[in-house]
Amino acid sequence: MIIKGNQHLEKTFVIEIKGLVQGVGFRPFIYRLAKSYNLYGWVENRNDGVAIKINCRATILDQFIASIKQNAPPASSIVSICFKSTDAENFTDFQIIKSRSISGKITDISPDMAVCDDCLYDLKIQKNRIDYPFINCTNCGPRFSIIRELPYDRKKTTMNDFEMCRDCEREYNDIDDRRFHAQPIACSACGPQYSLFYKNEIINDTEKIISALVKLIQNKKIIAIKGLGGFFLACNAVSEKSVSRLRKMKLREGKPFAVMFADIDAVKEYAFVDEIEEASLLSWKRPIVLLSQKKSLAPSVSNGLNTIGALLPYMPIHHLFFEKSDIHCIVMTSGNISDEPVIIDNKIASEKLSIIADAVLTYNREIYNRTDDSVVMVVNKKERILRRSRGYVPVPVNLTINAGDILATGAELVNCFCIGKDNQAIISQHIGDLKNIETYEFYCHTIEHFKKLFNFNPSLIVSDLHPDYLSTKYATETELKHVKVQHHHAHIASCMAEYNLDEKVIGVCFDGTGYGEDNCMWGSEFLICDLEESIRINHFDYIAMPGGDKATDEPWRMALAYLYNIYGYRFRELNLPFLANINPSSVYIICQAIDKKINSPLTSGAGRLFDAVAALINLCPYSKYHAEAPMRLESVIDKKIKTSYPFTFSSTISFNETIKNIIRDLKNTVPLPEISAKFHNTIISVIAVVVKETREKHNLNKVVLSGGTFQNKYILENIENLLLKNNFKVFSHQKVPTNDGGIALGQLAIAAKKRFISN
Ligand SMILES: [Zn+2]
Ligand SMILES: [Zn+2]
To answer: Average model confidence (pLDDT) for the chain?
Structure first.
């Protein structure tokens, strides 16, 4: 036994670390750190984190803990570190001890991680991994997408099909190796392999695959490529011929495509990138980051919007491709047909995607959990998630209330569901629009996956109030105790849960639509609410939505509804250009339908007002994809314009004066960017005025912003700054989408709170 100096000053401490600390190389990291401090003791995985027992002096303990925080593995995320002294014990070395208390209760699973720099380096020099496109280590590689069940162990992943070779096994068992216990460890001798299907040929050699890919992309071909969580369709992003063909083949008429750039310099050539955006692009999560466009790619990529959805390579194959190619940007859009979920199966890909793609690149490891690319934007120096999937899922949100055994079924569009495990809310990956039958199947499967994966057995289910949402029907069919939560209350609660707020706040929830307590379609709600209840204190005037859902595809219907409401039939005398292309008999029928209340539900949705304005100025009378009209309207804003339009408000908010003034500006040929800016500034003023009045009346100072409208960067940025200037405390989404993808978290938080109170 080695006797260390100063041993009489040493005490025995237990350190407990909670957060995402399993499956991310945390124990080997602690082992190496303890060795470097010459400390004796052990580290182990526990149900709820990692525990360390060591002998050391108090001053060294402080340094040791500081080093843990500072140097923790990139994919780990420490929620808390606590320590206490304990009965003295003697150790003769430092060990990773076998976990004694592992059960199905462990919930933290690492998301998939982008290939790390060390592995990219090894790709050049390690004999068995030269250009091996499935290289990974404890700091990188697939995780969530390949895991079938817990505990996280190779056998429980889709890597089980591959037997480790002796070299890999040696590294796997060597504590000093970077790949110690890296479950997906693989090399060219033993791991997964790519195959490229082109015409009637199959190419299996990596070098040949890469050079074929480079040639195909150069020759304007479309390629289906299997990614970490599903297939993608790729083509040259500067070739209009390739991109427009892809758009046509994919039946994706308008929606912008994401673009993968070779490196950060290539991104900066085409887009403006600030330091926070750069950090997001470069993070191991590798999301798509929405950036302002600097230089145009092929016009069909962004289709008239002034933004680029950019991302950087995250799989070794992406790096190998860009290294060998002089093309610096490729379209990388999800490999699906229209609105179906992204394809994950090799056979289905070769059937369905080979119709669109000239070549299909697959590999022989199964994807178990489907994930899409995540999408973020940066507003006021903070990253905001808009689509939460690869790289972010299934990291939990920590709640103050116990939400155990609650299943929140989410909304219908851009659905995510959420499960409660004790104080953790685990939100599913982005599922999509449930009205699509394949997507609904994906939803049901994923709920089953989550039950198994997280040993989750719901005893309480919570859904939206909307009787026709498939997520509500799912909840009803389970016959579990069922709580229903109003859509906009759930939105605000979702943001509150992110910040652990559990008190009365002023909630401002703007979105397209959500079922209201009066059976109308809400969507511009000023609420006073906490996690238990919600009171609607103000909203936009109701307006008819002629044709119901059809009005969301045809924004001109909303413009017409506003005009008819203000002017009656006299609106025809205005000779507005947007009406020139619309059949006068359709116009007449719609006015009749509004009068007779035929298929014209009432709405207060902010999104519908944005639709109306975008159509009124003839910018977007027809919408080819969800929220196109508001996105186009935002895209043309002239940011130099600080003026706004008048509006009136008492118990509700009326935009009649706004619309009249927009028409006046149109007549005076005021440029559209100026009209758009003035309209956006009006919405910002409305929020500020109503919120100020509410503060005075109700003595509340915390404002929570949620709903799809806050995906509008201009509005979120400016309203946040304006409210902060007026000494409000402002909360807006970061970790969870502000759109309906965040609803499930709010539902879960409300159900947990209600259960807590009733117990
Ligand atoms: Zn690595
Ligand atoms: Zn191997």
So the answer is: 94
Tens digits of residue pLDDT in 367-378:
999 999 999 999
Which carries the bigger pLDDT value, residue 336 or residue 242?
242
Least distant ligand from the CA of 73: 1
CB of 135 closer than 8 Å to CB of 316: yes
Ligand nearest to the CA of 75: 1
Q: What is the mean predicted confidence (pLDDT) over 435-461?
A: 95
Distance 114 CA to ligand 1 centre (A): 8
Q: What would the DSSP string read from start to end of 283-324?
A: STT--EEEEEESS---HHHHTT-SEEEEE---SHHHHHHHHH
At residue 252, the pLDDT reads 67
Total-model pTM: 0.94
CA of 684 to the centre of ligand 1 (A): 46
Q: What does the alpha-carbon distance between residue 284 and residue 19 come to, in Å, rounded to a whole number?
A: 17
Residue indicated by tokens 């001798």: 189
Q: What is the pLDDT of residues 239-277, one digit of tens each?
A: 999 999 999 988 767 899 999 999 999 999 999 999 999
Closest to 633 measured CA to CA, from 660, 606, 664: 606
pLDDT exceeds cutoff 50 at 392: yes
The helix or strand, by DSSP H or E, that contains position 697, with its residue range, turns out to be: helix 672-698
Q: Are 504 and 529 in contact (CB under 8 A)?
A: yes
What residues does the ion ligand 1 have nearby, CB within 5 Å? 116, 119, 137, 139-140
CA of 166 to the centre of ligand 2 (A): 7
Q: What letter represents residue 185's amino acid? A: I
Counted residue by residue, the chain has a size of: 759
Asked whether the beta carbons of 318 and 135 are under 8 A apart, the reply is no
Q: Which of 559-577 are b and which e, b meaning 16 or more Cβ less than 10 Å from the residue's Cβ?
A: bbbbbbbbbeeebeeeebe
| Among the bound ligands, the one closest to the CA of 179 | 1
What burial letters (b/e) apply to 423-461, b meaning 16+ CB within 10 Å? bbbbbbbbbbbbebeebbebbeebbebbeebbebebebb
Burial (0-12, 13-18, 19+ Cβ within 10 Å), 1: exposed
Question: Does a cis peptide bond (omega within 30 degrees of 0) precede residue 287?
Answer: no
Q: Which of 501, 405, 426 is nearest to 706 (CA)?
A: 501
**Mean pLDDT score, 599-605:** 96
Gap from CA of 148 to ligand 1 centroid (Å) = 22
- Whole-angstrom distance, CA of residue 554 vs CA of residue 571: 19
Q: Give pLDDT, residue 105.
A: 54
Which ligand has the shortest distance to the CA of 136? Answer: 1
